[in-house]
Structures are given as structure tokens and as C-alpha cells.
Amino acid sequence: MHPNRAFLWTDLPAMRAFAAEQAMAQLFAAGSVALAYVPVWVREGGELWLHLSNGNRLLKALTDGAEAVAGFAERGHYISANWYADRAGSVPTWNYRSVEVSGRVRRLSRMELVAQLDALSAL
Known about the structure:
With 123 residues, the chain is α+β, with helices and mostly antiparallel strands. The protein is 20% helix and 30% strand. Strand 2 and strand 3 (48-50) form a beta hairpin. The longest helix is centred in the last third of the chain and has 13 residues, at 110-122.
């Protein structure tokens, strides 16, 4: 699905809160056709800390400095064309909210990893 510019979400604090509420993201890395579903901790300031197991095939593409995209979405729901009062030209659609975050990857230090796993365990 493509977002219509009329519905573009630009409220950064609300988007961060939404991502934190979902707590799970689809992670994509530049140069890889793989994706992973990962638990995510949205830290103050918007930095994402996430966790992949050592056996995850996406890990090869996520070297320090690699570009990645995390996608957060809620379930949403279908809206039938019959819902509209004026059905002429109406089409069905899907009502949903989503946030995409892109950035560069940095591996966590051992201390950061322990803090992150503690935080994820508390979610």
C-alpha cells in the first residue's frame, strides 16, 4: 500500500509513541532481500535499540554503518466501498497507521546489550 500525502503523519512525538507501543518491527537492511521481525526499544530521543539472534540471516547485512529500515504497523481494518454514503466512484480501502524509521546500524556494547535486554524484558 502507498500512503496518500493527505494522510501523511508528521507528528514526531506521536510517531515515536506509536512505535514504542507496537514494540515489534519488521527490519530491512540495504542490500539484503531478507527481513526480520524484531523486538524494539524506542529510547528517549527516538533512537531504536533492537535485538537479533546471532543465527538470524539478516545479521550479515547489518554491519556497523549499514542502512536499515524498521517498519511498525498496527493491524488496521478493511473499509468496504459500501460504507460510503455516495458509492459512485468509491473503492474499498484499508484503514491503518504505520511508521517507517530509517537510519544507520551500530552494534551495541556489552553493557548496552544488557541494558537493552533488561528493558525489552520489562515490556
